[in-house]
Design brief:
The chain is mainly alpha-helical. It contains 2 helices and no strands.
Length: 22
């Protein structure tokens, strides 16, 4: 998955993905 692309859209989405891994 291109998580980098999500970070570009917004850090909120990045946190959401981080939560999934956590």
């Amino acid at each position: 998955m291109n998580y980098r692309k999500y970070i570009r859209h917004g850090r909120r989405l990045y946190n959401l993905i981080k939560g999934m891994f956590n």
